[in-house]
Sequence to fold (206 residues):
Amino acid sequence: MIEILKTPIFTHEVFSFSLPNFETYKKQIEQIVLVEENKSIHKIDTSPENECNVKAKRTAWNSHQKYFALQRICDDVSNYVEQFVASEDYDAPKFETQECWINWYGKGQNALPHHHGSNLSAVLFVDVENTDANFYFHADKNLVLHKKTDVHTNFNDIVEVKAKNGTVLFFDGSISHSVSPNLTEKRRVTMAINFKPVYTYERSEY
Fold:
């Protein structure tokens, strides 16, 4: 029999870190949610009109432009990501906030599988503990070779990441992901960010 080589392709990495100053940011986000939930009193409601994959309450796509506190969080996350990029010597540009919003999930609410296109995406887990919160990444697979002798499958189309308060995940926005239903009476709060890659230095001669 001829030799047939296996070559793994299209591997993905998801990165995470604990956000400094999280407790301060958490209080600010909770105040924004309180304002938006009481729109009859505060006359403020930035929630989008059209349906989306988030089957829960949320603020507008451009919430960083409406709430200065969110812009500061976006800037902090971007700075930490750029420091990581520099330390790993990745060939990557700077990242500017393109979209930002807050999600808060009541009982039975979730986020369906979706992706954010060609962005660097990030999620901050604000208040997720004791809400059965799981963050899922979904593989786009069409064909998988499975051995007849295998008792169990040796592949998985879904990777589960346990959510923890204060943790930021950042990843390729084209990866499909979802959020498990909130099975509790406790409100679950997250913040999502899409960053746009931007080259700020002059183009080299080629």
The two ends are 47 Å apart (CA to CA). The chain has four helices and eleven strands. The longest helix spans residues 68-87. The mean pLDDT is 88.
